[in-house]
Amino acid sequence: MARLETGKDDEERFRRVITAAKPKIWNKQAWEEVAATWNLSKEELSSLQIQKKRHDNLQRQQKKRHEEAMHDMFKGEQKRVAEIWNRGARQDLKSHLESIQNNDGLNNTWMRELADFFSEILEKVQVARNWHGKYGAKRENDAVNEDKADYFLLTEAHNFYLKTTGRLKLTVVRQEDPELQSVGRFMDKLRRAGGEVSVQAYHEKTATTVSRPVQDVIQQWKTAKADDEVLDPPLNMLDLAAQKFSIKGVNERMTFLEELLFDIRNKIHGVGKGKIFGDMDVSTFFRIFATQWSKSPWHMDACGAITHVRLEGDGGNKPWICVIIDHLSPAEQQKVWDDFASEGPYWIPQEPAKAVVILLQPGDTLIMPPGTIHAVLTMSDSLMNGGMCWMQTNVFDHMKARAYTCENSDCTNENMPIQSEDIVLEVNGRVDQDFAAYGLQEHQINEFEKFCEIVLQSARAAKMPRGKKRKR
């Protein structure tokens, strides 16, 4: 039986109980179950019920105000995006892909393989349907409700839905008057950093990256710009480090991964500054730079994390293609994952799975739940800042996606993080002590432990280098 710790303030107690309970309806039976689970007195239960009522009233008022504002901002967005995609962007992409397919000199190269793949995907992809609040859904004939939508379209000031519920769904957060970093400024920073950088090698026979001097890459880009030419092959740099940044109401409350890394580091190296990790520590925030016509086929991010990427720069829209499965049953979702594992990066999704395209505009931040299968096309030079985060109350989904990429390495374009074993042991230990605090229900524990074991075995098989051996 769970028991709230004495000394917990009202807000913390309310958060833990409400988060762990998650009944479909807050009726008398639900409250009786909460009282029994947490061993609450009548006074404690009454206090929680009052807090819940006050919380719900405030949330309803806030939602109404925000939904009205979002409706004014996003009215007609669905039609606008469909027109851009169907009347111009799709045809431009098709023409580019056909030029590669008709170039005999590119036979048996990765670039040709990517062109064949994306040509087939473009025939199946649909424009993603957005939801931007119940207010808009009631007033627009082409609007869909939150369950039928492919993604949420919210503003940074109005993303109440993520802040209040923490619901994990594909989401675009659009900033009003964003301060964007230009590609030219980014290149200046890259030049000052120097060293080498990994670049995808499109003219090779298989998917691979090569290490090139930063100065050579910058000069190649500048020369092409000066001559108003498109780089061939394009430059795609996926593993650039970045400074930490915040998305209001989103990654500021998804700090569980950072907390884990900090605690693991202290256990291994002590509480002094010492030596930090060189892998997942720097991957929690990253940067991606890609020139026109760069491409990445289907993949799933390896760390089982919530991934967020913001489109910077001074270019145009960036197509982001995702496989939508949250409208499917758990068995159907697993079938989609099994098919992807079987076919790999060049898999062609079949119904009932949906391949949809989201057109990101500069300043947009895309948030992908753990396990999102996605592919990316670049229609103009683009710079993105991104990061990975975990939610404490969602460790089941995080570990499930992490185990999947361990068992199906062809389905990800990232390597095993060196902290994988330590993270699993740390999370498993915490879940053993209080599974409800980490969003798990009792019937999920055995499956969660199976996921943990898969990741542990993969990390140990890879013989990841680690710091001082920690006492167990």
Distance between the termini: 27 Å
Structural class: alpha+beta
Total count of strands = 15
Supply the number of helical segments: 15
Taken from the alpha-carbon principal axes, the silhouette is globular
Radius of gyration: 23 Å
Overall average pLDDT: 81
Sheet of most strands: 8 strands, mixed
Helix proportion of residues, in percent?
Answer: 40-55%
Unreliable runs: 1-8, 268-278, 464-472
Q: Approximately how much beta-strand content do the residues carry?
A: 15-25%
What series of H and E elements makes up the topology?
A: HHHHHEEHEHEHEEHEHHEEEEHEEEEHHH
Order of strands, widest sheet? 2-3-4-13-10-15-8-7
Description:
- The chain is of the alpha+beta class and 472 residues long.
- Helix content is 44%, strand content 17%.
- It has helices at 10-21, 28-38, 42-74, 77-101, 110-124, 134-139, 160-165, 183-193, 214-226, 256-269, 280-283, 330-343, 395-407, 420-433, 445-461; strands spanning 126-127, 130-131, 151-155, 171-174, 196-200, 209-213, 236-241, 285-290, 295-300, 306-311, 318-324, 354-360, 364-368, 373-377, 382-389.
- The strands form 3 sheets. An 8-stranded mixed beta sheet has the order 2-3-4-13-10-15-8-7.
- A hairpin with an 8-residue loop joins β5 (196-200) and β6.
- α13 crosses α15.
